[in-house]
Amino acid sequence: MPIADQPARDASSTASVAELVGLLDLERLEDNLFRGYNPPESWPFRTRVFGGQVLAQALVAAQRTVDIAAHSMHAYFLLGGDPDAAIVYEVERVRDGRSFATRRTVAIQHGRPIFIMSVSFHREEPGLDHQLDLSEPVPPPEAVPGIGDLPEAVRARLPAPVLDYWMRPRPIELRPIGLGEPRSEPRRMVWFRAGRALPDEPALHRAVLAYASDMTLLEATTVLHSTSVLGNEIQAASLDHALWMHRPFRADDWLLYAQDSPSASGARGLARGLVYDRQGRLVASVAQEGLIRPVTPSWTANA
């Protein structure tokens, strides 16, 4: 959908996106040193730094040291981020080749690394082309109700923390398919896009995708069980995160996040995601392992 034809977003999303774009405009301290800031206190659930924010800011820092496009990133979350302290990003220029470049970014708070990431960049060139298509029809985003438009009976079935999560204002508009419906497989799908049009800067769209790729994904590891990473029965945290970007895309047009979880065991769950644009092109792939540790004795599986 051309950007000029997109329907208007609500005012809260527009303000949040403007703040997100500001968060991704890092302050350069030195050639390879950048400083990022956290959302204002007005943002809800600001108890620790959102992992997608660190992913996106670390990618922005790496991108500012190279003139070709990022195609993959592999990251580890080491410590929870302090939302009241700025984050310093140190970029190591590992390699600059004719076709590829590699950067390593370390996020630092209070003198300690909280996050590390390697990013690979690739100069565009022609090559073979194929993709794995979706195996089932998916309703378009216009046919999927937003949370505020869900029938009251559906909203009543959702646990309070889950409903609270989906209702909160955010810079990324989310439309989950079949929210609250029983699942027979660990699979789920979510349409998402930035809450308003973004500038025509591909590097910014890649950073916004990195930000959004950490949203909702870990829930795929609990969708078969009588619990959620959004409640108080599970101690949840992202442990690592990998993102591959395959084709050009716009993060302010609808993207479909097709998620599954091949395995959960030993208090860890593996989640995967394929990101498609509205035309059905596979634009990115994601993988994440997370901590999903039960914290209540009454927790039982319901697979």
From TrEMBL:
GO terms for molecular function: fatty acyl-CoA hydrolase activity. Its EC number is 3.1.2.20. It comes from the Bacteria. Signal peptide: none annotated. InterPro entries: Acyl-CoA_hotdog, Acyl_CoA_thio, HotDog_dom_sf, TesB_ACOT8-like_N, TesB_C. Residues 185-291 form the Acyl-CoA thioesterase 2 C-terminal domain. Pfam families: 4HBT_3 (PF13622), Acyl_CoA_thio (PF02551). PANTHER family: ACYL-COA THIOESTERASE, ACYL-COENZYME A THIOESTERASE 8. Homotetramer. Belongs to the C/M/P thioester hydrolase family. This is Acyl-CoA thioesterase 2. It comes from Ancylobacter pratisalsi. The lineage of its organism: Bacteria, Pseudomonadati, Pseudomonadota, Alphaproteobacteria, Hyphomicrobiales.
